[in-house]
Design a protein that fits this description.
mainly alpha
Length: 67
């Protein structure tokens, strides 16, 4: 798609899977601050207010899947 980066896609998928910020950070070996930075960027790109809206938009665009 090219809308979000590969890393942002990984963050989004983990959020879609129900992971919290600390869980995402641990899973991807990055800091919670980095996760929050990725989320801020994702919100901007997907025009979302929060993680729920971001995930719903990402699912609709086929960026992530709900398992």
């Amino acid at each position: 798609r090219g809308l979000v980066t590969k890393r942002e896609e990984e963050v989004l998928q983990l959020i879609a899977d129900g992971c919290s910020t600390p869980e995402v950070a641990s899973e991807l070996y990055i800091s919670q601050k980095t996760v929050k930075n990725h989320l801020a960027s994702i919100y901007q790109k997907l025009d979302a207010r929060d993680r729920t809206q971001a995930v719903l938009t990402a699912v609709r665009l086929g960026i992530v899947s709900l398992n």
